[in-house]
Amino acid sequence: MPVSPEPPLSLGEWLVLCLVCEEPLHGFALARILGPDGSMGRVWRVPKPVVYRALQRLEQLGLVRTTGQQPSTQGPVRSLVDAASSGRKLASAWLTRPASHNRDVRSELLVKLALLDRSGADPRPLLDAQREQLIPVARALEDRLAAAAGFDRTLILWRCETVSATIRFLDALSARALAQASAK
């Protein structure tokens, strides 16, 4: 049986899927977690309407399913949503995959690190994979910088410095995670 390709999901949809993998939740609870004052909203905010659209899309894709109802004193009965096994597999694989571009580190990598922290998982495999992805980029930028002039040099220097800063950030997080693991 051929493996179906991974559906293209937005960062908000990945967040909703990963949170539902932690425990069955209803849309209002997800919107609270992903709102401006929520534990994940401080990393990446997802507006309430987008949370509900994400739940609908994830259900259409067969990645989540409604598993029950929860009565509420502050509105209508809320539908609890849980991850399907296919959704759990996709979320687990996504959490270990590095961000594909340095520009996505601020959003995607930080979201993944926050989710891994919530679950108590070791972030080092993700940090190592992200570092390995960025090392060739840093080298290529350094090579281009030597031959660049004018504004091209400015732009390449900016990119070179941001990738270098990201690698230092990853190294610092890895060292901290290693020290924490050694202390256990």
Short description:
This protein has helices spanning 11-22, 27-33, 48-60, 85-96, 105-119, 124-147, 150-183; strands at residues 64-70, 78-83.
Average pLDDT, to the nearest integer? 93
Number of strands: 2
Shape: elongated
Order of strands in the sheet with most strands: 1-2
Head-to-tail CA distance between termini: 43 Å
What percentage of amino acids are in beta strands?
A: 5-15%
Q: What helical percentage do the residues reach?
A: 55-70%
Strand count, sense and barrel status of the largest sheet are:
2 strands, antiparallel
Rg from C-alpha positions? 19 Å
SSE series: HHHEEHHHH
Number of helices: 7
Structural class: mainly alpha
Unreliable spans: none
What can you see in these coordinates?
- The longest helix has 34 residues, at 150-183.
- Helix 1 (11-22) packs across helix 4 (85-96).
- It is elongated and about 65 Å long.
- It has 184 residues and is mostly helical.
- It has 7 helices and 2 strands.
Q: How is this fold's topology laid out?
A:
Elements: H1 11-22, H2 27-33, H3 48-60, E1 64-70, E2 78-83, H4 85-96, H5 105-119, H6 124-147, H7 150-183
Antiparallel strand pairs: 1-2
Helix pairs in contact: 1-3, 1-4, 1-5, 2-3, 6-7
